[in-house]
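Changelog-adjacent note: as of this version, every example in the card shows the full chain rather than a window. The one below runs 303 residues end to end.
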Amino acid sequence: MYDQTDPRSRMAAASAAQASAPTSFSGADYGLFYQTDPQITADGARTWLTRGQNFLVGYSEVEAGGSLSRTGQGDEYVLLLSDHETPAIVEANGERLEVDGFSLVILPPGDSRITLPNGGRATRIFSTRSDDLNALCANAESYTERHPNVTLLEPWPDPVGGFRIRAYSLDVPPSQGRFGRIFRCTTLMVNYLDEQHGPRDIAKLSPHHHDDFEQGSLALDGTYTHHLRWPWTTNLNAWRDDEHALVKSPSLTVIPPPAIHTSRGMDDGLNQLVDIFSPPRTDFSNQGWVLNADEYPAPASLS
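Full-length structure tokens:
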């Protein structure tokens, strides 16, 4: 359910075919980085880790000259530099790239290192094919068993020209009919939503659900209330109470399918949310909203 001014209101109704309605549900996960200890402290950086079924987020606060490294990374991952004053030096597999602040960077599989000369905050987004990171997540126990209703990740086709460092400025102005600032790689879709200044209009919320994929809502600035409601079934034991979770920044909320959800920015200043999906969303891709779609093809079955 979307307000008529929301670009998503024009999407054709489409959902994954299901053999039967869900009979069990998982709860939401909340990584409240602002009030918990980091899982990793190394190389001048403190990193908090929280996961979903298919993706995980590492939020880092880095000292000047500090670095973030991966060795033998099995697949691509995404780096978010959410501040203009936070440039980075990105190195991977013999390639070196100086990246401006306020950028999204896709790093290839293999060995990589990210150095922040000025320090600042950096967010890395991975698939959960990295077992070492999975084990460190604050909510690792939540995924001792697979969450119901989530289709597992199958990577999308390799990028045009092969794997390498790819950097994109987030200075993309809003465009009529386009939703957010969406980028994808082989394993992830990241939507760096348009800035919201002041509280969201309570008459223009967007309650909706996803049949078979989870949503990560990464709050980088401001405060959000995440409203969630789960379906009722014939079995009262499966019912879950509504949640109206007030979270500050930085934090990650993992919203499971098929919970109805909508989020409201609450602060008078900047409220900045980033939505994360794994694998990339077909419906958003089919709208032509993906800004780097020419470099990352969709599966042939979707074309």
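Structural remarks: The chain has a mean pLDDT of 95.
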